[in-house]
């Protein structure tokens, strides 16, 4: 669906992300960041138009107190690195230090390595 209706799907996911970003329930926070990662393949073009804002939101999720949200953020950044080329590369100065900081988190280690490998 995202491949054929990308601008419509992305606008809905982005709206969900904007609303869920500060939700008290960590399941909502994890869901929005996972959704951004999942739709990055089929919604690459509309996502690239808001890439700076999307990255800012996902980097914020990397600092979330809940492990589930941080893991979802690492997954999303890995997906962005795969599907949002070449635009994502221009954001390496803000993204890579955040990914490197997550490598110390033993609970998110695997997802952090995935994000780092995809980005590099």
Automatic annotation (TrEMBL):
Swiss-Prot/TrEMBL HEAT repeat ranges: 54-92
A GO cellular component annotation in the UniProt record: cytoplasm
Pfam families the UniProt entry points to: HEAT_EZ
Key words of the record: Cytoplasm, Protein transport, Repeat, Transport
Protein localization: Cytoplasm
GO BP term, example: protein import into nucleus
Domain of life of the native organism: Eukaryota
Presence of the UniProt keyword Cytoplasm in the record: yes
Main localization category: cytoplasm
Coiled coil: none
Protein name, entry field: Importin-beta 4
Organism, as annotated: Hibiscus trionum
């Amino acid at each position: 669906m995202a491949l054929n209706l990308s601008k419509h799907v992305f606008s809905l996911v982005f709206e969900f992300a904007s609303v869920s970003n500060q939700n008290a329930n960590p399941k909502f926070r994890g869901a929005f960041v996972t959704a951004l990662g999942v739709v990055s393949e089929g919604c690459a073009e509309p996502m690239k138009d808001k890439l700076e804002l999307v990255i800012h939101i996902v980097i914020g999720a990397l600092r979330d107190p809940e492990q589930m949200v941080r893991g979802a953020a690492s997954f999303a950044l890995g997906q962005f690195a795969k599907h949002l080329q070449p635009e994502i590369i221009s954001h390496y100065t803000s993204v890579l230090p955040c990914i490197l900081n997550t490598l110390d988190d033993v609970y998110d280690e695997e997802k952090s390595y995935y994000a780092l490998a995809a980005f590099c």
